[in-house]
Design brief:
The complex is a heterodimer. Chain A folds into two domains: 1-41, no CATH class; 57-255, no CATH class. Chain A contains five helices and 13 strands. Chain A starts with a helix and ends in a 6-residue tail after the last strand. Chain A has a nine-stranded mixed barrel with strand order 1-2-3-4-5-6-9-10-11. A two-stranded antiparallel sheet of chain A has the order 7-8. Chain A has helices at 2-17, 19-22, 28-40, 45-56, 101-115; strands at 74-76, 140-145, 149-154, 159-164, 183-188, 194-199, 204-205, 212-213, 218-227, 230-238, 247-255, 278-280, 286-288. Chain B is α+β, with helices and mostly antiparallel strands. Chain B has helices at 2-16, 73-78; strands at residues 34-44, 49-57, 63-71, 91-98, 105-113, 118-119. Chain B has a five-stranded mixed beta barrel with strand order 1-2-3-5-4. In chain B, strand 5 (105-113) and strand 6 (118-119) form a beta hairpin. Chain B starts with a helix and ends in a 9-residue tail after the last strand. Chain A binds chain B through residues 74-78, 80, 82-83, 114, 117-121, 123-124, 138-140, 155-156, 208, 253-254, 256-257, 262-270, 272-273, 275-276, 278, 285-288, 291, 293-294, and chain B through 13, 17, 20-27, 41, 44, 46-49, 51, 53, 65-67, 69, 72-75, 77-78, 82, 100-101, 103-105, 125-128.
């Protein structure tokens, strides 16, 4: 049994490294289950990342003459459950994630209050979504690839995540400090998958009406173009403060049809105009500060 | 045909969903809808939300200025609603979820111009 499980796990790992293997995965459920099991085989995000490093071997990296085409403007097609972090969450149900009891209770209370009309989103106070929340914002995205680093740009709060792919390591442990987007290092596989490890993140919500994550969270992300218009992301969150086991999900970012080039990223400031100013009320709900319709 | 059905269903689902941008929609009553007809005073085409400001003449001849909140410019562009689509002076009938506190503002659900053009600000959430 253990051998069978480990075979499945390593097959999943190989699938992420080998595009031909990925094409052989029989169904979304099977792929999801394999990825979940893969994540559970490792205690930390760093361990999973190092596993991918080992699987990739020495044939890694890209050059200006050999880069994937991620040009264009993309958007995440959110699932039927709406603004859910986990693509697999079903409408009207809680996310299928194993939280420690304290965080499960907080999550359930948040959903109950939201359903009662009591909700405030920190983005309303100009907080950026950061990572991993930013993975689940339904607005525009662009990507800038160079051999030594890749930028993941999100329209919300005009955020840019920098993925360093020049072989550097994370900051020295004693010099680390938490930020919204953390510190990301990564590498390119020979078949143009971008594998990323992120630490130094700070507290946040996976999405509005979703669980919290702590400043102990670390991420492993694997990006690859599945076809001309679809950028697929596999992501594992490890958070020993909040999660009893890694939380895996899969996302697709769709390159938008933009024939006349009128769809483009614009600066995003949350108080751009008096009518965009909101504030948290004493009961925890949200209201506009004042209107200017003159 | 199946793809068309899926796309149609997705567009319908997007229509029914609340505003998605930077703040909660707790201030709007999503169980109620109001519909008004008026004249566009200004289209505030801003991030993260846009506002369509409309002058509505009441039965007693007085004028109430209403604001209808929608998504920001990029989602509106994806929905086929550009700043130039709604110049001042345009006649419009618009439906939205009103504010719970009674102020003359609402979350824009759907609008219709005099020529029959229907404007759904969330149609752009279908990634294609």
């Amino acid at each position: 049994m253990k051998n069978t499980l480990m075979s499945a796990v390593y097959a999943a790992g190989l699938a992420l490294i080998c595009v031909h293997c990925l094409a052989q995965i029989p169904s979304p459920d099977a792929e999801r289950n394999a990825m979940i099991e893969l994540g559970k085989q490792f205690d930390t995000a760093e361990d999973l990342y190092n596993y991918f490093v080992d699987q990739a071997g020495s044939n890694t990296g890209i050059s200006y003459d050999n880069m994937p085409d991620w040009s264009g403007v993309y958007s995440w097609q959110f699932p039927p459950a709406g603004l859910a972090y986990d693509t697999f969450q079903e409408p009207g149900k809680l996310a299928d994630v194993k939280l420690y009891p304290e965080y499960q209770q907080k999550y359930e209370e948040r959903v109950a209050l939201r359903d009662a009309g009591i909700e405030f989103d920190p983005l309303g106070n100009c907080q950026p979504p950061g990572a991993p929340r930013g993975l689940s914002e339904p607005f525009l995205r662009e990507y800038a690839i160079q051999p030594h680093q890749t930028w993941l740009m999100n329209e919300v709060a005009s955020e840019t995540r920098r993925i360093y792919t020049d072989g550097r390591t994370h900051l020295n442990e004693l010099d680390r400090f938490p930020t919204y987007d953390g510190d990301s290092i990564g590498f390119w596989t020979s078949d143009h998958k971008l594998v990323v490890h992120t630490n130094q993140l700070q507290w946040g919500m996976y999405q509005r009406g979703q669980p919290d994550y702590s400043d102990q969270i670390e991420l492993v992300e694997v990006y690859q173009k599945a076809d001309d218009k679809t950028l697929v992301l596999h992501v594992w969150a490890y958070d020993p403060e909040v999660l009893m086991e890694p939380w895996y999900t899969r996302k697709e970012y769709i390159q938008l049809t933009n024939t006349d080039k009128q769809i483009r990223m614009h600066y995003w400031y949350c108080f751009d105009g008096q009518n965009n100013a909101v504030e948290e009320q004493e009961d925890g709900s949200t209201n506009f500060i004042d209107f200017d319709f003159d | 045909m199946n793809k068309l059905r899926i796309l149609t269903g997705l567009i319908l689902a997007m229509t029914l969903m609340p505003l998605q941008a930077h703040h909660s929609t707790a201030m709007f009553d999503d169980q109620r809808e109001i519909t008004v007809t008026g004249t566009i005073k200004e289209f505030q085409y801003t991030n993260p939300h846009s506002w369509l400001i409309i002058d509505v003449t009441n039965d007693d001849g007085s004028v109430t200025t209403w604001g209808f909140e929608a998504e920001g410019p990029t989602t509106l562009t994806r929905s086929g609603i550009r700043k130039s689509t709604l110049p001042p002076g345009t006649k419009i009938t618009i439906t939205g979820h009103p504010m719970k506190d009674g102020r003359s503002a609402a979350a824009w659900v759907v609008a219709e111009l005099e020529d029959g053009t229907v404007l759904n600000p969330r149609a752009g959430f279908v990634a294609r």
